[in-house]
Specification:
Layout (H helix, E strand, L loop, with lengths): L1 H16 L15 E13 L6 E14 L4 E14 L9 E12 L5 E13 L7 E12 L3 E11 L7 E13 L2
Antiparallel strand pairs: 1-2, 1-8, 2-3, 3-4, 4-5, 5-6, 6-7, 7-8
Length: 177
């Protein structure tokens, strides 16, 4: 946990160093703000990988470009974790994240890095109701699309029930008018 917080703090510091002209929220327009809708798929790893074989979900986010290189916003979605068929008594369960997104875009098109942080609500009888989550990601972006790889971890009250997954996702940018 300390390593994740240290990594996140370092990433925020890097973002601040590259900050340029800041925009205010009243400056929202189609050039600096958009709704991101997409799909994700992943493979559960760690202890949860013993019970779930695949994860598939929907992502939704509203992003505001605070500078030309730094974006922030809110994220949510739904991911379904599918139980392994060969394990009796296991069920599919869902995860509903609610968090903040931070993105760094060095160029108008190309590489980007970022993370989502917040709280995830778990559904369908999972042993925990939810927990803090972090979802670092790296990928490619252009004016319309973001395609990225991610690592997702949900920290539940029972460390043996933490949920970890790795995967890929794609989001489409719908411009605010």
């Amino acid at each position: 946990m300390k390593k994740l917080l240290l990594s996140f703090s370092f990433m925020v510091a890097v973002f601040a160093v590259y900050a340029q002209t800041e925009r205010d929220l009243e400056d929202i327009n189609e050039d600096n703000s958009w709704l991101k809708l997409g799909l994700n798929m992943g493979v559960p790893i760690g202890d949860i990988g013993d019970y779930s074989s695949f994860a598939f979900g929907l992502d939704a986010a509203g992003q505001f470009m605070r500078t030309d290189n730094f974006g922030l916003g809110v994220v949510t979605g739904y991911t379904q974790y599918f139980a392994k068929d060969d394990l009796p008594g296991t069920e599919n369960f869902g995860a509903i994240p609610l968090g903040l997104m931070f993105r760094y875009y060095p160029e108008p098109s190309g590489f980007f890095a970022g993370t989502d942080v917040g709280y995830t609500f778990l559904t369908n009888g999972f042993p925990s109701d939810g927990g803090f989550y972090i979802r670092p990601q790296v990928g490619y972006h252009n004016y319309d699309w973001n395609i990225f790889a991610f690592y997702n971890q949900i920290f539940t009250s029972d460390p043996t029930a933490d949920i970890q997954s790795i995967g890929v996702a794609a989001t489409y940018n719908i411009r605010f008018k």
